[in-house]
């Protein structure tokens, strides 16, 4: 059992970017490749968990997980998660969810007639915060991609969203983060933290999965 500490644990994990349609041919997106999330989903499954992966659009090969649900928009990801949130023990939000979406996608392709175009955007629901605010929430793990004051913003996010753990990474630098094969993480919980130095995302995912398992067990022992 020591090698598979998450045996019987039901995991729900979001990964990848979301796409917010502007019209039938265009969308607002972001640079998330989904790689970290897919690697983490596999690493958690390897530790014995039963992982349901809710994936935004990616070009990655299919990961070895129990179940996979493909979604496109933040609202679709939100409903896919909420429909399953009551039946999971551990929720891991690695997805780069769009903060805003166009109010109403245009029915037909937007024409380039005007010199300037204003887009009206509305806030998307915060999936992670909503799961963490449920009456008996699963153990929640979030991510924080920051360009500066990484630890401070991440700890604030941990408290504000009511999470059990947060994995923070420094983005926008030379190495690591979005569109990179490597990453480094500062993992933070209420009364502790650990640095996972720059390494290949597959290895990093294994180390993070082991740390999540450790904190998860500690949480349930308490
Ligand atoms: O607040 P911020 O977007 O920086 O928080 C990032 C964390 O919240 C990530 O774990 C991300 O997956 C999650 N998130 C979410 N739904 C959103 C926005 C972020 O689940 N609408």
Number of strands: 12
Identify the bound ligands. cytidine-5'-monophosphate
And the CATH topology? Rossmann fold
Q: Helix/strand-derived class? A: alpha/beta
Please state the CA-atom Rg, rounded to the nearest Å. 18 Å
Strand order of the largest sheet: 5-4-1-6-9-10-11-12
Q: Percentage of helical residues?
A: 25-40%
* Number of helical segments with 4 or more residues: 5
- Note the main sheet: 8 strands, mixed
Which segments are poorly predicted (pLDDT under 50) over 5 or more consecutive residues?
A: none
Shape: globular
Number of domains: 1
* Arithmetic mean of pLDDT: 94
Strand content: 25-35%
From the N-terminal CA to the C-terminal CA, the straight-line distance is 20 Å
Name of the CATH first level: Alpha Beta
Q: Architecture, according to CATH?
A: 3-Layer(aba) Sandwich
Q: What is the H level of CATH, i.e. the homologous superfamily?
A: CoaB-like
N-to-C order of helices and strands: EEEHEEHEEEHEHEEEH
Key features of this structure:
Rossmann fold; 222 residues; binds cytidine-5'-monophosphate; two-stranded antiparallel ribbon; 12 strands; alpha/beta
Characterization of this structure:
The chain is α/β, with parallel strands linked by helices. It has one domain (10-100, 119-221): CoaB-like (Rossmann fold). The protein has five helices and twelve strands. It has helices spanning 35-46, 74-82, 127-132, 150-161, 201-221, and strands at residues 10-15, 20-23, 26-28, 50-55, 67-70, 90-93, 100-102, 121-123, 139-146, 165-170, 182-189, 192-200. It has an eight-stranded mixed sheet with strand order 5-4-1-6-9-10-11-12, with helices on both faces. Strands 2-3 form a two-stranded antiparallel sheet. A two-stranded antiparallel ribbon has the order 7-8. The radius of gyration is 18 Å and the shape is globular. It binds cytidine-5'-monophosphate (C5P). Cytidine-5'-monophosphate binds at residues 14, 74, 93-95, 97, 124, 126-128, 142-144, 157. The site of cytidine-5'-monophosphate has 14 residues, from helix 3 and strand 9.
